[in-house]
Amino acid sequence: MTDRPFTTIENQWITLKDGTRLAARIWLPDDAEADTVPAVFEFLPYRKRDGTAARDESTYPVFAAAGIAGVRVDIRGSGESDGVIDGEYTELELANACELIAWIAAQPWSNGNVGMMGISWGGFNGLQVAALRPPALKAVISIASTTDRYNDDIHYKNGCHLSAQLSWAATMLAYQSRSPDPDLVGNRWLEMWMERLENEPFFMEEWLSHQRRDDFWKHGSIAEDFSAVEIPTLVVAGWADGYRNTPLLAAEGLGEKSKALIGPWVHKYPHFAWPKPRADFHGEAIAFWNRWLRGEENGIENLPQVRAYIIDGPKPAVRRDVEPGTWISKQRWSEPEAQCFYVDQFGALLEGMPIPHAPPHEIYLKSPLDTGTASGEWFTLKPDAEMAGDQRVDDAGSLTFETLPLTEGKSFLGRPVLTVTLRCDAELANLCARIVDVHPDGAATRVSFGVINLAHRDGNENPKPLRPGEPVTIRLELDTCGYRFGESHRIRLSLSTAYWPTVLPPPTDPGLTIDIASLGLAMPKLGEHEAFEMKQPNNPDPLPKYTEHAPAETKRSVTRDLSANRTDYHIHEDTGLFEHPDTGLATRQLREETWSIKPDDPLSMTGVSTWTCDMQREGWSVRTVSTSRISCTATDWLIGASVIAYEGERQVFEKTFEKVIPRDLM
């Protein structure tokens, strides 16, 4: 079949029922009114004109050449769309998505069938819109998303406050503060920009006002009612990304309606993600759309329910471009059989179950509050220091148990589960558990981790304080993993009371007394499976090349000031200045973020994230500088933000925001 010619509509205005005009970019196969086509819809606040242009241009032209229209729309208040954004996955956003799907289906070039696709925000709202059942929506491809907004997003994890929450609030403040492009909106650009700057919310306030899994988080969490999603879904994630749990959770909740694909990747589309190997996302997506949007009998529904890359013992490294491993498949996903381990009196991790009614063997653990600097970041975009590093530095502040060198390899796929009895002399404490692959030379690769705010031990909706000194038995599910421990490697379980800066500390630092005689670890066996040959992308370098005016640069560093007894974790991200060759628009984003803590004082914790965003073309330039901050007291979270905007060298806007939000068992 030859490629179908297509036309790119650089900007299409779509007017909603309330009069708001949204901006769309459309890739439309030629002669579609005579030979109608299905459409794939993506709905984001990340700016089609510049923010997602490169990745859009890596995919939608391929779809259009296959006879599938692409419709990429900016959410209200972003890019060139009118209005001001009102939050994340709000009822208004989802209602607008349903209205847009109806608009697409009614176009004279449409065959009436629409799919939704996206990574992260677009993966989230694709599943959420599917649960609303708009008639024309027939299928969803959701990448790096979640079924549970409270426990598997950048905000909270088992009641622990993730530092990524501030990082993402800072990102959204920076993105939503940017100007529309005058080349598309004309002289209205300044008025639209001022409206955004004046009225955009600081998302952190709303997120931090809901520290429990309440109705705010239940909204948009399809785990509340998986049966609401009735259409086929392809759910994709990477082991190196924070959204790694979603594909198997979707397979469990949606059953045969859902297919899961998990590779070794960071937070990127599979056809250009790192670490390699990649996947032929274009070929698979086109077959998926043809089956469910065209009715083509191509057998895509017969693919195994789960396809996963089993990582095979990579060394921790400054950069991991390729992960060793093997693709496997499971025709049907079911709860895996567990390989159980316990800890003996000498601290060795042995196969088997804990001895019933064994006398307690208690060990006190109080990790330095800067334990966790090798954790990498929850939200990863590059296979470098954003991924977890050598765990020996964090294990030094942890309680560790490990097996003897393995006499044969062991492969696992699923969620490890830790059970343990412990007690605490305070009402609040956190526990972090990590599974680590210890190489023969001692290098330590993180395989999985889990954290829990112990006040949330019985659920996240109605947490309750610990009773000081009273033993409690907790069950902690760690993140999903697909991993093979090689012969002569050791399996290590590491426990710590801190995991900073990934997790922010509770207001006190009491430590935990852990009964190692009670400790049980259930590792999910890989079980029956088939080898699977994952086709690689036809184009190994699919992203378009833009004109470089200044190079990109990224750095991460940890500084321990011994005189001040303070540890700083610093992030420097510079996208470089790149110009789109067709639009002449050049953009650059600079992020400087620093987290600080004293290893013995949880109230010393601070985080500051500053973004500088530049947009320019000949004769026109704008800049925004936005700063987001968090600190704490024993009773409150203290947050703040500021935005300064410039047209050329002239400051045209400034605002600040300060808020005190009570801590809620956190």
Structural account:
The protein folds into three domains: 6-151 and 209-330, 3-Layer(aba) Sandwich (Rossmann fold), CATH 3.40.50; 160-208 and 545-666, no CATH class; 338-530, Sandwich (Jelly Rolls). Helices cover 15% and strands 38% of the residues. β30 (586-598) and β31 form a beta hairpin.
Radius of gyration: 25 Å
C-alpha termini separation: 58 Å
What is the global morphology?
globular
Question: What is the fold named in CATH at topology level of the largest domain?
Answer: Rossmann fold
Name the CATH superfamily classification of the largest domain.
Alpha/Beta hydrolase fold, catalytic domain
Q: DSSP helix count? A: 11
**Sheet having the most strands:** 13 strands, mixed
Examine the secondary-structure arrangement and name the CATH architecture of the largest domain: 3-Layer(aba) Sandwich
Give the tally of structural domains. Answer: 3
Which spans of ≥5 residues are poorly predicted at pLDDT below 50? none
Structural class: alpha+beta
User: What is the oligomeric state here?
Assistant: single chain
What would CATH call the class of the largest domain? Alpha Beta
> Helicity, in percent?
10-25%
What is the averaged pLDDT score?
Answer: 97
Which strand-content bin applies to the residues?
Answer: 35-45%
Task: List how many beta strands DSSP finds.
Answer: 34
